[in-house]
Design brief:
The protein is of the alpha+beta class. A hairpin with a 2-residue loop joins strand 3 and strand 4. The chain is built from three helices and five strands, in the order βαβααβββ. The chain is globular and about 40 Å long.
């Protein structure tokens, strides 16, 4: 499946923003990313095995924070955006 990575990870991915990775769930996708881009998993998942707070994971367009979420055709990791009203 296609995995998309945010520009903020460019220093750790060599500016790779999209690659093909196999996996049945988000955790397996992260493991596949780690095999393809050693060291990147630590920027996606914290020491407790949870998606880092500043990231959003979309599986086929649906947001999830659960690494056990089954995957389909596309997984995208995005930098979460927050802010207030002007």
């Amino acid at each position: 499946m296609t995995v998309r990575l945010p520009a903020g990870l460019d220093p750790f991915t060599g500016a790779t923003r999209e690659l093909e990775v196999d996996g049945a769930d988000v955790a397996e996708v992260v493991a596949g990313l780690e095999r393809a881009l050693p060291g990147v998993a630590g920027h996606l998942v914290d020491g407790g095995g949870r998606l880092r707070a500043h990231l959003l994971c979309l599986v086929d367009g649906t947001a999830t924070r659960d690494l056990a979420t089954p995957v389909g055709d596309e997984v995208a990791f995005l930098t979460a955006v927050s802010g207030g009203a002007a």
